[in-house]
C-alpha cells in the first residue's frame, strides 16, 4: 500500500476530458515531481487529489482509505500554492495556526506546533509580524508553515516558487529539500523548473494530454526519455 494510490482517475469539465485514467502509486516519504506542458492537467490532478475537484471516475486512496467522497478538510493533505494567499490582518503565528484553530485544537498544542514550524523555517523571531512586513521568501515560508503545522499525510505543491526571483527560488529549493529530509513527508510537487525537478525528485512523473507518459528517477528520464517533451524538459540529447 502506498501513501497515496491513484487508480484510473478521470476528470472532465463538461465534454472536455482533462485527466484520462491516471494511475500513480506514491510511497510513504516519497518526493514526486510532476512535470508536463502547460494545460496537460497537472493542477487538475493535484486539485482532484485534494478534493477541490471531484473525480469523474477512479479511486483516490490515501493511507489505505478511499477518500473520493471526503471533503478537502477531511483528506489530511496540505496544499501549497504559488500565490500564498496569507490573511493580511493576521500575524505569522495567526496565519500558521488558522487551520488548527478551526479544528479547535488545544491552545498549548497549537503554540507548540507553531513555534516548532516557525523555528524549522527560520521564522522564530517573526511570529508577531503581519504579512506586509515580510519579504517574499518569508511569506512563502509562512505558507509552508501553515501546511506543516497540520501534520498532513502528504504535501501537494503547485509551482510554489514560480513567483520568486531566481536567487530566492534557489534558496527555497534547498530549504524544501532540507525540510523534506527532516519531516520525511510524502510530497507531490508540480514545477516547470528543470533544476527543481532534478534536485528534489525521488521520481519524476511526466504528463501530457491528461495521461502519464513516463515515471522514473531523474537519471532514468535523462537516459531514456519516453518522448520529446521529456527529452526537452530534462535536457537530454535524445
Ligand atoms: P496545468 O496545471 O498542467 O497547466 P490544468 O490542470 O490547469 O493544467 O488544466 C488542464 C486543462 O483543463 C486545461 O485545458 C484547462 O483549461 C482545463 N481546466 C482546468 N480547470 C478547469 C475548469 N474549472 N473548468 C474548465 N476547464 C478547466
Ligand atoms: Mg497548473
From TrEMBL:
It comes from the Bacteria. It is a peripheral membrane protein. It is found in: Cell inner membrane. Residues 4-234 form the ABC transporter domain. Its main location: membrane. One of its GO terms (cellular component) is ATP-binding cassette (ABC) transporter complex, substrate-binding subunit-containing. GO terms for biological process: carbohydrate transport. Keywords: ATP-binding, Nucleotide-binding, Transport. Belongs to the ABC transporter superfamily. This is sn-glycerol-3-phosphate ABC transporter ATP-binding protein UgpC. It comes from Plantimonas leprariae. The gene is ugpC. The chain holds residues 1 to 238 of 363 of the full protein.
Amino acid at each position: 500500500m502506498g501513501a497515496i494510490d491513484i487508480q484510473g482517475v478521470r476528470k472532465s469539465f463538461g465534454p472536455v476530458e482533462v485527466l484520462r485514467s491516471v494511475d500513480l502509486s506514491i510511497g510513504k516519504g516519497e518526493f514526486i515531481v510532476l512535470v508536463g506542458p502547460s494545460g496537460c492537467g497537472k493542477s487538475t490532478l493535484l486539485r482532484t487529489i485534494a478534493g477541490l475537484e471531484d473525480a469523474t471516475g477512479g479511486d483516490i486512496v490515501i493511507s489505505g482509505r478511499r477518500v473520493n467522497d471526503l471533503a478537502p478538510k477531511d483528506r489530511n493533505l496540505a496544499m501549497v500554492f504559488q500565490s500564498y494567499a496569507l490573511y493580511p490582518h493576521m500575524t505569522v503565528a495567526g496565519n500558521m495556526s488558522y487551520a488548527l484553530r478551526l479544528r479547535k485544537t488545544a491552545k498549548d498544542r497549537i503554540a507548540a506546533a507553531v513555534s516548532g514550524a516557525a523555528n524549522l523555517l527560520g521564522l522564530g523571531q517573526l511570529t508577531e509580524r503581519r504579512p506586509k512586513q515580510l519579504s517574499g521568501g518569508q511569506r512563502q515560508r509562512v505558507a509552508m508553515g501553515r501546511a506543516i503545522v497540520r501534520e498532513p499525510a502528504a504535501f501537494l505543491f503547485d509551482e510554489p516558487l514560480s513567483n520568486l526571483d531566481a536567487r530566492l527560488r534557489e534558496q527555497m529549493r534547498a530549504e524544501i529539500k532540507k525540510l523534506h529530509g527532516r519531516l520525511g513527508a510524502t510530497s507531490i510537487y508540480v514545477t516547470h523548473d528543470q533544476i527543481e525537478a532534478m534536485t528534489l525528485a525521488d521520481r519524476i512523473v511526466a504528463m501530457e494530454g491528461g495521461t502519464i507518459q513516463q515515471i522514473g528517477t531523474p537519471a532514468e528520464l535523462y537516459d531514456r526519455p519516453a518522448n520529446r517533451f521529456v527529452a526537452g524538459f530534462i535536457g537530454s540529447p535524445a
